[in-house]
Design goal:
This protein is an all-alpha fold. The protein has one domain. It is 77% helix and 0% strand. The longest helix has 42 residues. The protein is elongated, with a radius of gyration of 29 Å. The mean pLDDT is 78.
């Protein structure tokens, strides 16, 4: 199940940001329904603008954090796929070419007389 394009593990990682988003949303709704500080357009406007801006900033941060987590997981998966020989203990082609170059350069040296 992919919600917003994120896997289940990524959504679990993002829970630390989703909980504060819910708390901020609760207070926005609570202050919209019950106005404990009276009706002052300047004060209420400032109060709601602060809460809504923090909600939006945290939502954007959460989205980009999720994208970064997904990208890091994909990079680890691709690295594991591209280097299967590292786990088996055999040499990669690049390593054998470097070793052959070292061997041939050692053979070219003439012994000192």
């Amino acid at each position: 199940m992919a919600l917003f394009g994120f896997e289940k593990d990524t959504l679990l990682d993002l829970t630390v940001n989703v909980i504060p988003l819910g708390i901020i949303l609760f207070f926005i709704a609570a202050f919209a329904v019950v106005n404990p500080f009276g009706l002052d357009p300047v004060f209420s406007g400032l109060q709601f603008s602060l809460m809504v801006s923090m909600f939006l900033l945290l939502a954007v941060l959460t989205y980009y954090a999720g994208r970064a987590i997904e990208g890091a997981e994909e990079a680890v998966d691709h690295a594991a796929i591209e280097e299967p020989n590292a786990t088996s203990g055999t040499l990669d082609e690049d390593d054998t070419v470097e070793e052959e170059a070292e061997l041939t350069s050692d053979d070219d040296e003439l012994p000192e007389a």
